[in-house]
Amino acid sequence: MLNINKFIFYFILFPLAEVVAYATVAGAETLKTKNFEIKITRQCAEGNVICNRVTYIGKDSKTGKSIRLTGKTVNNPKSYTFLGYEFSNGKYRYFVNTSNVLQVYKGRQLILEEQGVSIDN
Q: Domain residues of the chain, as ranges?
């Protein structure tokens, strides 16, 4: 005999939980610059203008070393227009803009700037 609680869990609640879990992640984008491959993942619901849970995984193409950072979206404070993503690592600040340009600052000094291109995931 079929237990109604098991039926509800396996056929209704469990699939619904999976849909909700996948719906909260808006997606990932990958870009390649001269020296790096970067994967940026927004971990906020799709449609959110502001997201403070963005992951950056940057891999050095020459050495193979990777760095993982957590950051946020950057928006124009008046119009909320999306400008890019910002990540911090001690004294270093990483910014990826809407034109796929990677900029790395040490304090206020720009120390690296590379144009990237979007690649398929």
A: 27-119
